[in-house]
Amino acid sequence: MTERRGSWLVVAEQELRDLWLAGRGLPLTLAFTLVLSVMTYLTATNTALNFLEQRESVNLTLQVAVAVGALLVLLGSADALSGERERGTLESLLLSPASRLDLVAGKALAALSIWLVAVLAAVPYVWFLGHGVGLVAVAVAGGLVVGTLLAVFLMGLGLVVSALSGSNRLSLSVCLFVLLALFAPTQLPGGAGQGWVGELIQRGDPMSSGLHYLGKLVVDAHSTGQDIAWLLAPVVAAAVGILATVAAARFLTLRGGTLS
Amino acid sequence: MTPAIEARGLTKTYGSLVAVDGLDLEIPQGIVLGFLGLNGAGKTTAIRVLTTVLPPSSGTFSVAGIPSTRPRDIRRAVGVLPESAGYPERQTGEEFLRYHARLFGHSRQSARTRAGSLLAEVGLAERGRTLVASYSRGMRQRLGIARALVNEPEVLFLDEPTLGLDPAGQRQVLGVIRRIADGRGATVVLSTHLLGEVEDVCSRVVILNRGRVVADGTVAEIVRRAAAPGRVRLEVAQGRVEHAMRALEGLPAVAAAQANGRPGELELTLAAESDPEAGVAEALRALLAADVSVVGLSLEGRRLSDAFLAMTEGS
Fold it and tell me: What residues of A are in contact with residue B80 (Cβ under 8 Å)?
């Protein structure tokens, strides 16, 4: 009658069903593809006019895909626990024999699925812009690696903030603020990023360093190992994301409110 | 026989607020326990501690013979309808129950079977495939009770199952609870403010006040222990109510006499320590001596609600 199966798998299955069959997964993906369509159109038309080199147009689209995909993961995970709490459904989950780590891990998987779908959705755009110059495989692989590292980091961040937040609104606000702060170094004007302080900030910020690595890979046609040091911050961030996911399970309480 | 619930010195504090204060309980198996208290008395917190959703600040407990050091095993053995439980609006009732059945280790097929039988048990068989968003509050409460039964619990906690329901919804939910209590042999802990229903359904009552147990026993024992005052409804000739009240003034057996708003009627509250029958006799003698004709009289039994109010007075 009963089967021994990890509760996290049961939670993940239900979360995936809620997200993709009855929830926001499909509308978010549609919005994501719309953004990519606009980006691709703009870069493709600029390429045709020779304003933008083909490699640069692929890089631009890829960076938008990674950034928006990571943002969607953050939104999904920021809602995961505080949303259950706000809807009054968290107590029923806590009353099941599933451990809190099982509950959080199942939700983490569902949040990560947003990124995986975003990658799949981005492939045709990258192919459209990059075919003919042998760029598609390296761009997709690079985007997948960098995006996955960033997505794991943001997933953990979202979950831990969500576990600590007394309300869903607070959780989303804190996460968006942190995301903007992480993206800020990517917007530094050229000169500001060139001193040792600028480089330190860019290397230390997982967003900036990850996108920088992608740029070297795609635009400058560097080999995968040539700028590997730029992946240090995203790798460390992903490890922090995994630790944060475990911490979210420890911080998960009925009331939350530590951040309120 | 191992008690269904045993707690020793169970305390839960939030900063300086003591929500549950040294709770001592020993609840035998197979009974329906009324868990009473004013709002904020600590009932919900006590239930959350006993069901391992909240950790206790101090003290020990066991539920279904399982010590608090094994919270996952306790959760396997209990069913809970939480106070103000929420429900996923985008799931159907059946899907919701299947999900929770699988969290309790049921296989896909067995979860489907279990969900179907529980929906039938709580009278939702025909609505099982519609979204929870379309359910009335009463239907949601019944769905919540079904969820609490998904693991065939040995101890069932129902926290305010009739809260916010209209009389028809209350009747339906109480009907379900009665059927569960009669048919399953599980221990049921019923936290409610419907004291009349507690008198009907519960074989034992615990009253909490400011986080402490102030009464524990059968309804009759608690009423007697509380020395709750008896009440007498008197009907006298019209226009003689004032006269009757003057005649009853100062009688040792009568704590209070007042008109109840209906013509010719007044209500007496007997002194808490008095024997009700002797008190009525004394009142009748005084009325006859004052030439007040008594047209009707009914002695109302001492009620749980009176005992409850007496024991929680001042909170």
Answer: 91, 95
